[in-house]
Amino acid sequence: MRIGVLALQGASEAHQRMLLGMGVAAPAVRRAEDLEGLDGLVLPGGESSTLLHFLAQDDFLPAVAGFVARRPCLGTCAGLILLARQVLPAQASLGLLDVTVRRNAYGRQRESHICHDNGSSWGDAALEMVFIRAPRIERCGPAVEILARRGQEPVLVRQGHLLGCAFHPELGRDTRVHQLLVDACRDGAVQGLDEAS
Ligand code: GLN
């Protein structure tokens, strides 16, 4: 299995290390050609406006959009913002995951923190969640499953083959969020947008 990690800016290396530790090849993706032959993709955290700026070069954005429309993808933090249908304050996005997100809603860089999910869906071991200038998921469409919450607020969601995560699962040792992506790739969860929405 090969899961690419978008490596234009931001937290790509920690995702690569985590996937490699799980026995999954995790090549860096920097150009459209790098998407060839991948089973899935991680859109990492970073700065979504900067990621958009780099994606706009060399027709890379349509290539990533085409890939993500068909193959499993995990978007974390800025990556979730890229996947979202609506971004507040308004910003361009791929628009594939039917959520509305508000950028920087959990505070500034110096207010970065670790907390745990509310324990309803992850059994005995709560999910450790690292929040760094994270987006808040303010609306979920009807096809969106909520997989983890912080208090009442959704912080990990899934719509068909797309996973969106407000926090940074790559910065801890808990592999369960990445495992969801690996499972989607293993199941060959290839869906058209019509099926996913
Ligand atoms: N605040 C960033 C943005 O709006 C996301 C932060 C992150 O990815 N840790 O893109």
Structure description:
By secondary structure, this protein is an alpha/beta fold. It has a single domain (3-196), classed as Rossmann fold (3-Layer(aba) Sandwich). Helix content is 25%, strand content 28%. It is built from six helices and twelve strands. The strands form three sheets. A seven-stranded mixed beta sheet has the order 2-1-3-4-12-11-10. A three-stranded mixed beta sheet has the order 5-6-9. Strand 1, helix 1 and strand 2 (28-29) form a beta-alpha-beta unit. Residues 191-197 have low confidence and may be disordered.
Please write out the topology.
Elements: E1 3-6, H1 12-21, E2 28-29, E3 40-43, H2 48-55, H3 60-70, E4 73-76, H4 78-83, E5 84-88, E6 97-102, E7 113-116, E8 128-131, E9 136-140, E10 145-150, E11 153-159, E12 162-165, H5 176-186, H6 193-196
Parallel strand pairs: 1-2, 1-3, 3-4, 4-12, 5-6
Antiparallel strand pairs: 6-9, 7-8, 10-11, 11-12
Bound molecules: glutamine (GLN).
Active site: 77, 168, 170
Family: Belongs to the glutaminase PdxT/SNO family.
Catalytic activity: L-glutamine + H2O = L-glutamate + NH4(+)
| Spatial strand arrangement across the major sheet | 2-1-3-4-12-11-10
* Biggest sheet statistics: 7 strands, mixed
**CATH-scheme architecture:** 3-Layer(aba) Sandwich
Average predicted confidence as pLDDT = 92
Structural class: alpha/beta
Distance between the termini: 26 Å
Helix content: 25-40%
Total strands: 12
Poorly predicted residue ranges: 191-197
What compounds sit in this structure?
glutamine
Q: Specify the CATH class.
A: Alpha Beta
CATH topology: Rossmann fold
| Run of helices and strands | EHEEHHEHEEEEEEEEHH
Portion of residues in beta strands equals 25-35%
The number of helices is 6
Number of domains: 1
Estimate the global geometry from the Cα principal axes: globular
Q: Spell out the CATH superfamily.
A: Class I glutamine amidotransferase (GATase) domain
